Amino acid sequence: MKATELPFFSKIGAPMFLERCAKICFTKIRPILFFSSLLFPILLVTTYLFFQQRELQDLESSFSSTMKKAKITLEKKRKKERFLNRYAASNPYFISEKIESLHFLDQEKEDLKILLDHPAISNKKIFKERLAFLSGEENRLAFAEENIRRSSKIKETEEKQRHPVQIDEKDLQTILALIEDVSIDPLAAPQLIIRNFQLKKKETSLQTQVFEVEMALLKREWIQ
């Protein structure tokens, strides 16, 4: 039985085979081309991975931008829905029931009552006249509706104050809280926008300081 023939590189030995290959590479092929051929696959893979990473970063950036826009759009939609739901349930008689019903200068009225009951004061006419003015309709807010405009969803009414009224600082805060919708009963108010507001200090017949106010409002009501 013949001995099994070994492959060529087994006959000459693995080290000699590798040595011959190296000699061929460096004699037949220029070293720079040889090393270039070794580096080319690495550069190719590196370039491919680089562009893949850039594409992934672009996709992440685009996704992040889209999510931000979607969040902004959703938040705007929610605000709009809350706004419409809020004012769609407003009280159409809010001005007459909540604002025109206000009483002003309560502290001055109490002081006048004390002076009228004081035995040392003989001439009480001026105090009576002042108290009658503060307690009557002359010093109550009253608005006239003008230029009513309607659409399928909104009703706008211009509310113009009929005459000036006298108030103090506490009264002013109460009025503005109701108009600007920061009162204790905000769900009842329609949207009220101040179109004109005049406020000035005034000296009364009793030489006390008060504010005189006159305003014009725009009332908006959303129709369900």
How would you characterize this protein structure?
- The chain folds into 2 domains: 1-88; 90-222, no CATH class.
- It is 52% helix and 21% strand.
- It has 7 helices and 5 strands, in the order H-H-H-H-H-H-E-E-E-H-E-E.
- Strands 1, 2, 3, 4 and 5 form a 5-stranded antiparallel β-sheet that branches.
- The longest helix is centred in the first third of the chain and has 58 residues, at 31-88.
- It starts with 7 loop residues before the first helix and ends with a strand.
- Mean pLDDT is 82; it is low at 8-12.
Summary, kept brief:
The protein is built from 7 helices and 5 strands. By secondary structure, it is of the alpha+beta class. The termini are far apart.
Number of domains: 2
Unreliable stretches covering 5 or more consecutive residues: 8-12
- Helical percent range? 40-55%
Instruction: State mean pLDDT (0 to 100 scale).
Output: 82
**Tally of alpha and pi helices:** 7
Q: How would you sum up the major sheet?
A: 5 strands, antiparallel
Q: What is the molecular shape?
A: elongated
Alpha carbon gyration radius: 45 Å
Helix/sheet category: alpha+beta
Q: Give the ordered list of helices and strands.
A: HHHHHHEEEHEE
**Portion in beta strands:** 15-25%
Amino-to-carboxy terminus distance: 107 Å
> What's the total number of strands?
5
